[in-house]
Write a structure and sequence with these properties.
alpha/beta; Rossmann fold; 6-stranded parallel beta sheet; about 40% helix
């Protein structure tokens, strides 16, 4: 009797993933991927999100995985469909997001024969993967069930890491692709519902001698600094205890999750734009947690400093300026706890840290005074007010380019908001889909701060959005082009015509009409003071909505410089 191997493999993999805690999967139309798509849709433990566009599906899955910390599945057919997943695979790799990429393929006898919808999918994503398997076409043979179980479990373990990232299973299926109704090939799982193989993550800690050495250096260095970027992965209380004992200030990028609390210097970006302050506040030692900060000013300042220790548990070489003097491939939380326990005092009196905190207060007052009165919408104020307006427990997804930089420069530190961004490779693609994936997996109020180009670049992410039962608000800064290019040197050296054509690239699209085509309501903000109440109403109304704030690119650059000048004046008056 012929047994159904295609359905058996697909259902075995899905069962193994659900046992390991996978909850979300994205599927796209196709024939060759039918066995896996049907297995996903028919498993009640999974939320399955259908998509027409493969790139949108992949970024939606990426958003789910970012929000939940669990691997999410994206399933597509063969051919160019698989190529459309590549941008999200790269972001998952560099951003350390667990992603199960499942591409269907022709069996070996149909490859390189001119068969339709067939490309070379072996090694399609290059070195971006944590693991790749070109899975042989399912067949009924002895012992195959245990291999399938092990395959599913290892895919989860490899995607989870460390470091987390994408896994690619290239699944060859022979026809018939639909379930035949025949009995399945045997592939029983563990009887108690456990995954086939469970993997315990390593605890990465230093030996006592090295900890003693590092603690002695910290104790002997009153002018130290903690800099936290995305991936910092340290509890806020642990970081504050260390910074208090060491007498060091903390410069924390919003994406680190550590940009609040008693030791955070929120206005470090405007402060470091003041040449005298930057020169006079150079630390003797920098303890860096995770990736470099977002802003170029801070990263360039760090590049010129002396000793820098980089803490990254995965041992990644996060050092674009080639300035790191010591790399510590350990978990940040236990490291900071151990160092703090070895310090001679629980709180060091620190004129150094007090000077940073005083400058931070002066800068914050100068920023708020500059933003207080003008009613013409300004992108820096938009960033500040969005962060201030969000309810506790919400998530803010920030687009690359100017929005993430404006959050860093203008938003006041606050607890209760999780910041998410695709900063692995810093692209604008897939933003809409990522936001919707975050909303689907998190179940908390989700807001995106984006420019018009990022929003338009992933307009396909809105396809079918009204049927997804999601709550997400897109605050779109609409300046009819790429605003970040107006801050770069060639904005002043290139003639206006070529600059607009090649760099600013004004799309000339009415975002309200685009959103209306997808059934998404739009609320326009005409005055700066109106943003907070409009955003609050959009959150209360539920569903997917757009809040549009029109700004002028040239005026926006001028306002940024005015604010930075006001900060410099406030410091000079000290």
């Amino acid at each position: 009797m012929t047994r159904d191997a295609n359905a058996a493999l697909a259902r075995t993999l899905v069962d193994e993933w659900a046992r390991a805690g996978v909850t979300d999967a994205c599927v796209t139309p196709g024939s060759r991927n039918a066995p896996l798509a049907l297995a996903l849709v028919n498993d009640p433990r999974l939320r399955v999100h259908p998509h027409l566009d493969e790139r949108s599906a992949a970024f939606f899955a990426l958003g789910c995985a970012r929000a939940s910390g669990r691997p999410a599945v994206v399933c597509c057919t063969s051919g160019t469909a698989a190529a459309h997943l590549h941008p999200a695979v790269l972001e998952a790799s560099h951003g350390r997001v667990p992603l199960l990429v499942c591409t269907a393929d022709r069996p070996p006898e149909l490859r390189d024969t001119g068969a339709g919808q067939t490309i070379d999918q072996v090694g399609l994503y290059g070195g971006a993967l944590r693991w790749f398997v070109d899975v042989e076409a399912p067949a009924d043979r002895p012992g195959v069930g245990t291999w399938w179980r092990s395959l599913g479990a290892r895919a989860i373990a490899s995607a989870t890491g460390p470091p987390a990232g994408p896994v690619h299973l290239n699944l060859a299926f022979r026809e018939p692709l639909a379930p035949t109704g025949a009995p399945l090939v045997d592939a029983p799982g563990r009887p108690d519902g456990r995954p086939w193989t469970r993997v315990s993550p390593p605890r990465r800690v230093l030996d006592d001698d090295t900890l003693d050495e590092l603690a002695a250096i910290v104790s002997a260095t009153p002018r130290g600094l903690v800099v936290a970027g995305w991936g910092a992965d340290a509890p806020l209380g642990t970081l504050e205890r260390f910074a208090t004992g060491a007498g060091w200030p903390v410069l924390a990028d919003p994406l680190s999750g550590l940009r609040h609390g008693a030791r955070a210097i929120g206005a470090y970006d405007p402060l470091l734009r003041v040449a005298g302050f930057a020169a006079g506040h150079q630390p003797d030692l920098v303890l860096r947690l995770g990736a470099p900060p977002t802003g170029a000013v801070t990263t360039q300042w760090l590049a010129g400093l002396g000793d820098q220790w980089l803490v990254d548990p995965d041992g990644c070489w996060l050092d674009p300026a080639h300035a790191v003097s010591r790399r510590l491939a350990v978990d940040a939380g236990p490291l900071l706890d151990s160092l703090t326990d070895r310090l001679s005092v629980t709180e060091r009196a620190s004129p150094w840290r007090a000077a940073w905190e005083d400058a931070d207060r002066r800068a914050r007052r100068a920023i708020d005074d500059q933003l207080a009165d003008a009613e013409e919408p300004f992108e820096g104020r938009v960033a500040r007010d969005v962060v201030a307006t969000l309810p506790d427990g919400s998530t803010l997804v920030v687009a690359s380019s100017m929005p993430v930089r404006d959050i860093e420069s203008f938003a006041e530190p606050r607890p209760g908001v999780r910041f998410v961004a695709n900063r692995g490779v810093n692209g604008i693609d897939g933003l809409v889909s990522t936001v919707l994936g975050v909303a689907a997996a998190s179940g908390v109020p989700t807001v995106a701060l984006t420019g018009d180009l990022s929003f338009l670049h992933d307009a396909n992410g809105l396809l079918g959005v009204t049927r997804r039962d999601l709550d997400a608000v897109f605050v779109v800064v609409d300046n009819d082009g790429g605003g970040i290019f107006s801050f770069l040197p060639y904005a002043e050296t290139v003639d206006p015509g070529p600059f607009e054509t090649v760099f600013a690239t004004p799309p000339g699209v009415d975002l309200a009409e685009l959103a209306a085509a997808h059934g998404v309501p739009v609320a326009d903000v005409e005055k700066a003071s109106a943003l907070a109440p409009v955003l609050t109403r959009a959150l209360d109304a539920g569903g997917v909505r757009v809040v549009r704030v029109r700004t002028d690119r040239a005026a926006n650059v001028a306002r940024h410089h005015e604010v930075w000048a006001a900060v410099a004046a406030a410091l000079a008056a000290a």
